[in-house]
């Protein structure tokens, strides 16, 4: 301790009274030794507070010295057999390298990464051998978000464990034939193995934070015992540039997520070069996390540095460590011991004296902290035991550790995937892999005999921790019954005369019904992003409460109202504030709870469809990868529905985005009975049958009457299209009008105009899901392609339209591309015309907006007449008459260009 105090003394270069300083430091040392660091901290805080109140300006700093956070004398040493663990790690390094190199020698375009696992191997080994529990009796298991680029190392470990075969290793990144290994963690492709996808980069840290909070939520509500479970997330220092990586660290601290451990692999490099060549990424991240209230543990230097730091009585070494930038540190590890002696220790003559008795090889063996098992174990143990705050471990490593001149600490390390024979030989020798020279050219995998002491040790460690990881549960063990469709009678019947409601209101009635259900009520997870009142859901505040681990420490300003704002320790609502990405991350945690917690939860995340789908696009794709199950509710959907908010509030493309995710079931219902049928079917598929799908349902805040469910139309609703009403059977001409969402009502009004003004009948088709209709058509088209001699399959929409006559006009509140999806499946020879809302949105009344985007009843009528004229059943002059009659300006600019 006195040596450290001497260092602090020396750092005050302009100290006018060193004796006084010495007395203060001696006093502090006495407090620490006799009363402990907590007392010392209290006294220092009191001194700082007094100084500030007396007017002293004391600059704030959330940084500590560029040394390990845990002093050597407080380190808990790893209790394992380090010889066995080192050999196991070496074999995993070799097999990971061999997997990638062999794949690229066979096919140079497959890619793969060696260097990330090379820098992480020690950390992953310590975690798997000593900390991370698998699901077992009495423990739900820890959750691992593994750095995506390190997947070869995870496969290499699973190979030694007997969970992955050599044939699978040989098919790394070759998945089409069903026996390969995915490039990154992909639960969709390896549903029994990977728990979470962690690419695109930045999603892992964000999802892990909300996953940790969801574990607290489940525990507080008595649904699952999660008290002893941890969420561990590994990410790279370059990955921390992603806004998603850092975006929720304040929430993690505010929510006291002491079940969360973030490990940042600080190898100082990203793909192209240094992360902070002119700075120090570890210090930058320390300031960010410490300022946000996290427990920050830095693991910078390996054990060889401990003796040097102990000799550093004048603090010169610490000062040089701090002043050296990351770009220099990379150079040191890419060169050799002589270079380090000259360019690092040579920065001060006293440092050269310090290492005078060390050879260049000794200097080269001064490792970074992330490659020492004892340093890592001590940091992991600190994180495991920490209470009250989340923990971040900033661990300094070498990218490509062990790859030698071919990649170690070089800017090209990330892309290196093809090693020459000499590099392979060097790696074999460095890690003592027992493969003879005459076999090296084949780069064989190495696996010792099952009865070898190392393999017995490997299995024993995992047995002690409950089993193997990563592993994923495909289905929850519990079976929950879902209500029959009749349970939603309050929205299935037609609205009373003079009564108008929106589909948003219908949804609120549905979720209220579900909350009262004796089987599912407690499993409903309403997730909101500060728009509850917009969607009429504020009544849930008092009914089921808003989850807050502290409860409500204040009296809400609206306590005298029926629907006051109520927070509760066991609240059911997850209120995420103005935070779509956070809301989606909570939804993902709930939507995958069947797998991570063996508890079926049913999340309903309600958001503005425009903001939601645009901002959560990458997360929505990750949800598909994770086989999520739940409901995404896109409120105020459509380009012309949210009429007064302006360009960036109006959604004309969320359904285009939803259509890109194969296991997303997107619906754009118009009527309350359609919403009920869709939600009930979603419950059946996701809860009762545990199918790996999720639903995107758009809702509108426009009030109108609802016709009620006609028995027999349920199947058509779910398939995506059904006949809502038929036109006059006696009319000479006929058209087919297709619509969805609020614009279906414009088609209904257009049918009235066609009959009244032009004597033309119109059959009206409600299309709750043009995307599902298109998928059905594509499936039939594909089957017919590869089965040319079999009886052709007829797409569902083709079978519907073949029974009708006249041109077909499809109109939606979305881009034309939405309805264009089904053009290929229209009967041959039939005109198919599409109207949509391409272009930028703007503020105005719904009537004016629908006129501007040319999707109102008048444009639909003219479109139908134009189609009839093109087919030769009416004169073109009739269309011109209609244009004039309805006041349509032929010279009006195209809305796409406005």
Concise summary:
Its EC number is 1.2.4.1. The chain has 898 residues and is an alpha/beta fold. It is built from 37 helices and 18 strands.
How many beta strands in the DSSP annotation?
18
Described by the principal axes of the CA atoms, the overall outline is: elongated
- So, CATH architecture of the largest domain? 3-Layer(aba) Sandwich
**What radius of gyration results from the CA coordinates?**
33 Å
Number of helices: 37
First-to-last CA distance: 72 Å
Count of structural domains: 4
Largest sheet: 6 strands, parallel
**Helical percentage:** 40-55%
* Overall pLDDT: 94
Query: What is the spatial order of strands in the main beta sheet?
Result: 9-6-10-11-13-12
* Low-pLDDT ranges: 1-10
* CATH fold call of the largest domain: Rossmann fold
Q: According to CATH, what is the class of the largest domain?
A: Alpha Beta
Estimated structural class: alpha/beta
Beta-strand content estimate: 5-15%
Please name the fourth-level CATH homologous superfamily of the largest domain. Answer: Thiamin diphosphate (ThDP)-binding fold, Pyr/PP domains
Structure description:
It holds the Pfam family PDH_E1_M. Component of the pyruvate dehydrogenase (PDH) complex, that catalyzes the overall conversion of pyruvate to acetyl-CoA and CO(2). It is an enzyme of class 1 (oxidoreductase). The structure is a single chain. The N and C termini lie far apart (72 Å). Residues 1-10 have low confidence and may be disordered. With 898 residues, the protein is α/β, with parallel strands linked by helices. The protein is elongated, with a radius of gyration of 33 Å. The strands form four sheets. A six-stranded parallel sheet has the order 9-6-10-11-13-12, sandwiched between helices. Helices cover 42% and strands 9% of the residues.
């Amino acid at each position: 301790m006195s040596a450290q105090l001497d260092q602090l003394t020396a750092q005050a270069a302009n100290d006018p009274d060193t004796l006084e300083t010495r007395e203060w430091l001696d006093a502090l040392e006495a407090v620490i030794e006799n009363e402990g660091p907590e007392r010392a901290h209290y006294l220092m805080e009191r001194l700082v507070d007094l100084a500030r109140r007396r007017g002293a300006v004391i600059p704030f700093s959330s940084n500590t010295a560029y040394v390990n956070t845990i002093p050597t004398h407080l380190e808990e040493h790893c209790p394992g057999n380090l010889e066995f663990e080192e050999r196991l790690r070496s074999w995993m390094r070799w097999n990971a390298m061999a997997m990638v190199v062999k794949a690229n020698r066979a096919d140079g375009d497959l890619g793969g990464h060696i260097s990330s696992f090379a820098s992480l191997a020690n950390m992953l080994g310590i975690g798997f051998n000593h900390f991370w529990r698998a699901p077992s009796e009495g423990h739900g298991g820890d959750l691992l978000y593994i750095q995506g680029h390190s997947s070869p190392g995870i496969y290499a470990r699973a190979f030694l464990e007997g969970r992955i075969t050599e044939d699978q290793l040989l098919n790394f990144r070759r998945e089409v034939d069903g026996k390969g290994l995915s490039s990154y963690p992909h639960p969709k492709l390896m549903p029994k193995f990977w728990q979470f996808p962690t690419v695109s980069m930045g999603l892992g840290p964000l999802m892990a934070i909300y996953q940790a909070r969801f574990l607290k939520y489940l525990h507080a509500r008595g649904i699952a015992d999660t008290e002893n479970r941890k969420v561990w997330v590994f990410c790279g220092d370059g990955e921390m540039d992603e806004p998603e990586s850092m975006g929720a660290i304040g929430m993690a601290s505010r929510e006291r997520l002491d079940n969360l451990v973030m490990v940042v692999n600080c190898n100082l490099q990203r793909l192209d070069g240094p992360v902070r060549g002119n700075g120090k990424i570890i210090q930058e991240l320390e300031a960010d996390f410490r300022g946000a209230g996290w427990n920050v543990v830095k693991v910078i230097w390996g054990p060889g540095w401990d003796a040097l730091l102990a000799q550093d009585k004048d603090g010169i070494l610490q000062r040089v460590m701090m002043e050296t930038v990351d770009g220099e540190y990379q150079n040191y590890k890419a060169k050799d011991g002589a270079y380090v002696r000259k360019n690092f220790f040579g920065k001060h003559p006293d440092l050269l004296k310090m290492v005078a008795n060390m050879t260049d090889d000794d200097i080269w063996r001064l490792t970074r902290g992330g490659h020492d098992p004892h340093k890592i174990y001590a940091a992991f143990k600190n994180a495991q035991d920490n209470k009250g705050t989340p923990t971040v471990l900033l661990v300094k490593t070498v990218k490509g550790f062990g790859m030698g001149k071919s990649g170690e600490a070089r800017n090209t390390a990330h892309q290196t995937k093809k090693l020459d024979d000499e590099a392979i030989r060097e790696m074999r020798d460095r890690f003592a892999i027992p493969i003879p020279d005459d076999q090296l050219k084949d780069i064989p995998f190495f696996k010792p005999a099952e009865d070898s002491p190392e393999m017995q040790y490997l299995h024993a460690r995992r047995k002690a921790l409950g089993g193997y990881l990563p592993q994923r549960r495909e289905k929850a063990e519990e079976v929950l019954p879902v209500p029959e469709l009749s349970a939603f009678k309050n929205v299935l019947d037609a609205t009373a005369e003079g009564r108008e409601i929106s589909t948003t209101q219908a949804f609120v009635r549905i979720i209220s019904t579900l909350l009262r259900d004796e089987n599912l009520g407690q499993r409903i997870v309403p997730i909101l992003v500060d728009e509850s009142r917009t969607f009429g859901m504020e009544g849930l505040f008092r009914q089921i409460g808003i989850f807050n681990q502290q409860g409500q420490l204040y009296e809400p300003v609206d306590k005298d109202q029926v629907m006051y704002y109520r927070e509760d320790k066991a609240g059911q609502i997850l209120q995420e504030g103005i935070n779509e990405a956070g809301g989606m991350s909570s939804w993902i945690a709930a939507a995958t709870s069947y797998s991570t917690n063996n508890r079926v939860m049913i999340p309903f995340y309600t958001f503005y469809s425009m903001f939601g789908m645009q901002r959560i696009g990458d997360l929505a794709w990750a949800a598909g990868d994770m086989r999520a199950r739940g409901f995404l509710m896109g409120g105020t959907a459509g380009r012309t529905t949210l009429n007064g908010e302006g360009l960036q509030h109006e959604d004309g493309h969320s359904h285009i985005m939803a259509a890109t995710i194969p296991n997303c079931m997107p619906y754009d219902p118009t009527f309350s009975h359609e919403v009920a049928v869709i939600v009930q079917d979603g419950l059946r598929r996701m809860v009762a049958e545990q199918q790996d799908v999720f639903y995107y349902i758009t809702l509108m805040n426009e009030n109108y009457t609802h016709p009620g469910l006609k028995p027999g139309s349920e199947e058509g609703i779910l398939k995506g299209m059904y006949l809502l009403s038929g036109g006059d059977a006696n009319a000479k001409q006929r058209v087919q009008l297709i619509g969805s969402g609020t614009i279906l009502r414009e088609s209904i009004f257009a049918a009235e105009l066609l009959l009244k003004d032009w004597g033309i009948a119109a059959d009206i088709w409600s299309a709750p899901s043009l995307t599902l209709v298109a998928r059905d058509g594509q499936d039939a088209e594909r089957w017919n392609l590869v089965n040319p001699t079999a009886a052709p399959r007829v797409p569902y929409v083709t079978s519907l339209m073949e029974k009708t006559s006249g041109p077909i006009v499809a109109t939606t509140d979305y881009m034309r591309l939405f309805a264009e999806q089904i053009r290929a499946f229209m009967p041959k020879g039939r005109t198919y015309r599409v109207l949509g809302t391409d272009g930028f949105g703007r503020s105005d009344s719904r009537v004016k907006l629908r006129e501007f985007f040319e999707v109102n009843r008048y444009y639909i009528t003219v479109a139908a007449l134009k189609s009839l004229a093109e087919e030769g059943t009416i004169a073109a002059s009739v269309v011109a008459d209609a244009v004039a009659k309805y006041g349509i300006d032929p010279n009006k600019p195209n809305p796409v260009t406005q």
